[in-house]
Design a protein that fits this description.
Strand order of the largest sheet: 3-4-7-8-2-1-9
Helix content: 40-55%
Number of domains: 3
Number of helices: 16
CATH superfamily of the largest domain: P-loop containing nucleotide triphosphate hydrolases
Shape: flat
CATH class of the largest domain: Alpha Beta
Strand content: 15-25%
Number of strands: 15
Structural class: alpha/beta
Largest sheet: 7 strands, mixed
Bound molecules: guanosine-5'-triphosphate, magnesium ion
Length: 478
């Protein structure tokens, strides 16, 4: 923690500018070693941008050895130097910085070579190459962010949709932390009550104590449940959902794929068996990242290539979060339709009765016999009819009707969900014990456990391994 770290903070590649970030005690000193300001200069002022050059001094000491020039800032040097880049540099004094340490940022010309050269020089002057996420980790270790906020930083960077970004931003601003703190405060009060009662068992307050205990435990449990209810939506917004499109050949699967993508991605022909391999494409549907998987039509076949494609279709169904099953209204329901239906879970399936523009040869009731619980939409995909209803349906399914779209407070991180569930389980156990009027010592153990699990979310009671694990998911320079 005491050393000074540096990394390229911008994306690798060519760009208008590229930024080297340095954080730690030696930041300013290192800047002084590598930066030569243009014009008159009186010393670095915090948060003031300076124009100048990155230079590698080539001077010699009395013994003829090359030495590095110290403190170029403020002194016009006449010694030999190699100019590395022309830059804008800024020094930001801690603790009101990203890492809560002294930070320097050097805006170089964006490009792999200038950045690499400047970084190499900065490292030679005493900085160490930062690990992925180390800047944010320092912000956490220095108490500027809690762990859930630090995790929100990764989500912010990796957000795939506006909605995912909103959720991450709200979490970074501390919305989740505030909820967790509220529940923990409640549990802490509970623990104090329990301790008082354990310590003074003679007082005649036992019965009352149990009643209040029950009330408080269940209220804390309700608060956790409320957070957990936002979880599946939150996770889908963050990670996206995989939707497999299945059906027998020629029903219009690839037409749906193209319709939702608003592009001719998959080949559509009147020949059954056109799609032979699964095709995956990402699309943003109402701000939800969706991975669409178009599959080969499932049927009995002796064609080896088609058979492999069909195996992959079946796999796609297994791996999908949701399935769109297409029927062709103009052809009778067949063994193939029935066979496919048996592999689908009704609550995870949307059935499209496609080709509405042609003659219908079976009724909705007949289709419902195939897969009773599923939702049905009538479509005419070659004309783009029904696409809006399908998108409405996906949106409704993801938001589940519980969370309004504007509400950005959602739990979306698997680690947080797991800890909330563990916390809830402990509270359920302790509630049971309170109802059975068991000894307070036992109840205390579970309440304390819940308190600690919630603490892990914000990083108050968390082991180093978990911290390392969390930050290892960051990119370099963040
Ligand atoms: N009349 C009519 N034709 C449609 C409709 N939807 C798709 N088709 C036609 O049906 C044929 C098959 O469409 P595809 O989208 O290729 O069907 P698929 O399910 O991907 O077929 P495979 O890849 O062979 O499994 C094409 O000629 C489409 O133009 C529709 O709503 N009405
Ligand atoms: Mg197809």
């Amino acid at each position: 923690m005491n050393d000074t770290i540096a990394a390229v903070a911008t994306a690798y590649g060519e760009g208008g500018i590229g930024i080297i970030r340095i954080s730690g005690e030696k930041s300013l000193a290192i800047l002084g070693e590598v930066f030569e300001p243009a014009g008159k200069y009186a010393g670095a002022v915090s948060r003031r941008m300076m124009y100048g050059k990155i230079v590698d001094w080539k001077s010699e000491d009395g013994q003829g050895n090359k030495t590095d020039g110290a403190w170029a800032i403020g002194r016009r040097e006449t010694r030999d130097k190699e100019i590395i880049d022309e830059v804008l540099a800024v020094y930001m004094k801690g603790p009101k910085t990203y890492t809560a340490e002294d930070v320097v940022e050097i805006n170089c010309h964006g490009g792999i070579v200038p950045l690499r050269k400047t970084l190499a020089l900065v490292l030679r002057k005493g900085a160490r190459l930062a690990e992925p996420g180390e800047f944010t980790k320092r912000a956490f270790l220095n108490g500027r962010l809690d762990l859930s906020q630090a995790e929100a930083v990764i989500d912010l960077v990796k957000a795939k949709t506006d909605k995912g970004f909103d959720v991450a931003l709200s979490q970074l601003e501390g919305s989740l932390s505030a909820q967790i703190e509220k529940i923990r405060k409640k549990l802490l009060d509970l623990l104090v009550d329990i301790t008082v009662n354990i310590d003074y068992p003679d007082e005649d307050i036992e019965e009352l104590a149990y009643e209040t205990l029950e009330k408080n435990i269940s209220s804390a449990r309700d608060m956790i449940e409320k957070l957990l209810r936002t979880a599946s939506t939150g996770r889908m917004i963050r990670e996206g959902i995989r939707i497999a499109i299945v059906g027998k050949p020629n029903v219009g699967k690839s037409s749906l794929m193209n319709g939702l993508l608003r592009a001719n991605r998959a080949i559509v022909t009147e020949i059954p068996g056109t799609t032979r391999d699964t095709i995956e494409e990402a699309v943003n549907i109402r701000n939800i990242p969706v991975y669409l998987i178009d599959t080969a039509g499932i049927r009995e076949t002796t064609d080896q290539v088609e058979q492999i494609g069909i195996e992959k279709s079946k796999e796609a169904v297994q791996r999908a979060d949701f399935v769109i099953f297409i029927l062709d209204a103009s052809r009778a329901l067949s063994i193939e339709d029935r066979e496919i239906a048996t592999h689908l879970e009704e609550e995870k399936t949307l059935v499209l009765i496609n080709k509405q523009d042609l003659n219908h040869v079976f009724s909705l009731a007949e289709a419902q016999k195939l897969i009773s619980g599923g939702a049905f939409i009538h479509t005419s995909l070659s004309n783009g009819e029904g696409l809006t209803e399908i998108e409405d349906f996906i949106e409704k399914m993801v938001y589940g009707g519980q969370v309004t779209q504007k509400d950005s407070m959602m739990v979306n991180n698997v680690r947080h969900i797991e800890l909330l569930m563990q916390g809830k389980d402990s509270l359920v156990d302790s509630l049971e014990m309170a109802r059975r009027r068991e000894a307070l010592d036992f109840i205390e153990i579970d309440v304390r456990n819940a308190y600690e699990r919630l603490g892990e979310i914000i990083g108050e009671t968390v082991s180093d391994d978990i911290i390392d694990e969390v930050f290892s998911r960051f990119c370099l320079g963040k």
